[in-house]
Amino acid sequence: MTPEANLKQYTQRGDQAALGAVVAYFTPLVYGMALQRSGRAELAVEIAHSFFMKPRILLPTLVLVSGAVLLLHQRSELSRLRTESTSLATTPEAAGLLPDNTKQPNSPDASSAPSAPPLKATRAAATVTGPGHAGAEPSPAEAGSSITLASLTNGAEKNANLRTDNKVLLAGPIALRVMSLPKDSIAPLFARVTALLGSISREELEAGRCEDPEKMRAMLLLFPLMSRIQREDPARLLAWIASPGLPEFFKDGAGNFAEATMQNFAKSDPTAALTWFDQHRNMPEAGRVEAAALQGLAYQDVNAALREAGARGILREASAAMIPALTSSDARRAWSDAVMTMPDGERRGRRWRLLVDEQIRSNGWATAAEFLTAELPAEALSRNTLEPIAEAGMASDPDRVAGFLSKLPADHAAEAMPAFIARWAERDYNAAGQWLNASAGTAPWRDRAVALLVEKIAPLDAAAAKAWAATITDPAVRQTLK
Fold it and tell me: Is the pLDDT of residue 103 over 70?
């Protein structure tokens, strides 16, 4: 799921797994930018932690940050914040979060700028010792077992509660430590954490606390570890989600993580992802997960994904999941042809709406408007698809939106234009009136648009409302005015 979708899931349902995904997604960006600004790792950790302490207040900010991610990735310095966040390095400098020279712009002396200290207690032991092995690199099992959970949580378990948001929020700075761990230590560490989580009793969940601090530490480490495994070893994470021993507290949000993990898996190897799913069909939200696997295939070959969806009998579900992968006109045309084979017109309408929403989100309302009229079948042009375009363009360019809507086929313009003028008048009735004077002419929808304008301005300017009402030529429309 996208960060926006996870934010919506958390806002509407209080979904802890969705909030965990948001924290894990944004932590590298927030931490990395704070570190670049300050040059101090400890301060950057504190900033990253405090950023997530009031999630509902910061949701609008997070949405803006999400929208800015693509811009940040265009800058070579900031693109490393995510692409190198899984480095095997143990310090922020080596992990690519901060250049070796920590001098910030306009700092007085580059040579004297202090180096950013490493994150505290990243590893309990970097090497193993013994006869003939002094200074040797640890094996994968040793690498995982040599790391204590306490070294990663750094005392945060004392303030955690199993039943509230803070266990997720406290995981923000912990995620930074998890990111710097060696890759071969993650699997054994995850096995230890999930085993501890499986031993949490219902009574402990209801109380919100465990007497055993290791269980509390495991709870704090779950989301950061899942975030990293989702990228590096998605099959392992999916296997845990599909296992019968999945902890009770995690089951409500398991489908979200399974879907997002399968999307990552399928993008890199759709054949392996689909094969894996076919062997684990009893997992949570299996329908969504299967559709996510087909989304990954659609990024490589939309026609193959559509054929596979048809063969599996899930075109209805998978067609919605494929929408983010429709990045070319040929891909959209093939998808549209497949959608037109669906017998349910209402369901087809929802697919057109989803596709238009994706175009607005990715390319803006004007491109979505052109796409709707030029690429999609005639049935896609409806109130359901026109309303989001009009709403998206209202704030920035209402004149242009009005021009687009007024040039639609007569039946669509007759429905869309009066509604748009009414919404525009709520924001700026003078501008809406000026556009009507200059551009509406004798359009068939003009009188109904003017009537709605009159209703909006009457409480504010009775004289202007009366003058506008006098311009209505249709007696039936005039009679509708109060």
Answer: no
Dump strand ranges (E) for 180-297: none
User: CA-CA distance, 437 to 466, in Å (whole number)?
Assistant: 15
Listed in sequence order, the residues at least 6 apart from 337 whose beta carbon sits closer than 8 Å to its beta carbon are: none
CA distance 77 to 84: 11
pLDDT tens figures, 138-169: 454 455 557 888 888 878 777 766 655 545 55
Helix 213-232 and helix 234-242: axis angle, to 10°? 130
Contact 253, 19 (CB under 8 A): no
Residue that has been written with the tokens 């304008």 in this structure: 453
Highest mean pLDDT among 48-52, 116-120, 180-184, 385-389: 385-389
Looking at the chain, how many residues does it have?
482
Residue 446: partners with Cβ closer than 8 Å, 6 or more residues away: 436, 440
pLDDT of residue 169: 53
How open is the CA angle 242-244-245, to the nearest 5 degrees?
Answer: 110
pLDDT for 356 equals: 94
Give dist(CA 166, CA 160) in Å, integer.
6
What b/e readout covers 383-416, taking b as 16+ CB neighbours within 10 angstroms? eebbbbbbebbbeeebeebbebbbebeeebbebb
Helices (H) and strands (E) in the chain, counts: 27, 0
For residues 124 and 140, what is the distance between their CA atoms, to the nearest angstrom?
15
Cβ atoms of 328 and 301 within 8 Å: the answer is no
Contact 257, 17 (CB under 8 A): yes
Residue type, 169: L
Tokens of 85: 């966040």
Distance CA 415, CA 201 (A): 58
**Quick one: pLDDT band at residue 44, thresholds 50, 70, 90?**
low
pTM of the predicted structure, to 2 decimals: 0.63
What's 305-362 look like in SS3?
A: HHHHHHHHCCHHHHHHHCHHHCCCHHHHHHHHHHHCCCCCHHHHHHHHHHHHHHHHHH
Cα distances (Å, whole numbers) of residue 138 to 123, 164, 182, 343? 12, 37, 10, 60
